[in-house]
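Recall the central idea of this unit: under ordinary conditions, the amino acid sequence of a chain determines the structure it adopts. In this exercise we apply that idea directly, starting from the sequence alone.
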Amino acid sequence: MLGFISARQAGLDDPLRLRRAESTRRVLSLELNKDRDVERIHGSGINTLDIEPVEGRYMLSGGSDGVIVLYDLENLSRKPNYTCKALCSVGRSHPDAHKFSVETVQWYPHDTGMFTSSSFDKTLKIWDTNTLQPADVFQFEGTVYSHHMSPVATKHCLIAGHRQEVLAVSWSPRHEYVLATASADSKVKLWDVRRASGCLTTLDQHNGEKSKASSEAVNTAHNGRVNGLCYTSDGLHLLTVGTDDRMRLWNSSTGENTLVNYGKVSNESRKGLKFSVSCGCSPEFAFVPYKSTIAVYTIFSGELITMLRGHYNTVDCCVFQPNFQELYSGSRDCNILAWIPALREPVLDDVSEKPLRRQHINPAYEDAWSSSDDED
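Accordingly, the structure predicted from this sequence is:
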């Protein structure tokens, strides 16, 4: 690390290399932090988490009890031990609370003054954060499993929502009119909302090889329900998970299955599974709920780096905070856990007895940093 800093100061190195190196080190050292707690409010399982992208300070949670909670993640006390307090909540006694399980919560991407929620009560609600009152309510005929607002849209304020058996939906962070959906019929579709026909392609796990052998073959992304999807931060690839215990990585431009092998990714959820990806690391990582743990994979090689253990029941969601490389997870044990990068600790070298810094980075990644990764 000192080498990175010296090269940066001398103008010999790109500052992005230093930032990527430190971001990667921090992700690889994530651990359950004994000094930070998240106030327990929910009386049943937590289905969804979202951290607002404006400051990275406020987090929403939605639970199976229909409750929505807003947390402040900042340590205002400046003490080493602190609890992330709930600022407010839409509890069971709130006149406009959801009647059944809240499946998705999301901040408005450009302002913390508004957030959205959707529920098994067949509604999607837009909330005023300051008054904690719904500004609008959309009623649907079927169950709303998931919804998403585009993080990059400048020419529309569309909210993508699905009912019945479409279990996950996500706007592309690269193209504001492109949308991905995952469903219980094993299919993942990419859509362009400007087109009359809508559907751009249906992803095929066999990359067309099976359809060549049979004219009746139908494109499927998984051999089971597809209940989770997430774009990489640059929007160039799409990750999907299914109840066939597989995770797949797709080229979002061509729709090609990249055939990265992640091994078995246990997935027994009957509804949406909310997983997350890193941003600004090299390599990039995926954080995937795996029974009562969170599995951390390298996205492009498929290597399982570690399993984060701390929950006592099934984990249904996690969210990554890219500013400080922190991870928050929600479980059916009613707890939200904070996974924080380990502090650098001095250790003594046997020869020189001089204080050194403990390195948490896998040696395989020590020379992986390259500013060329940021070039389009």
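Helices lie at 2-9, 15-28, 209-213.
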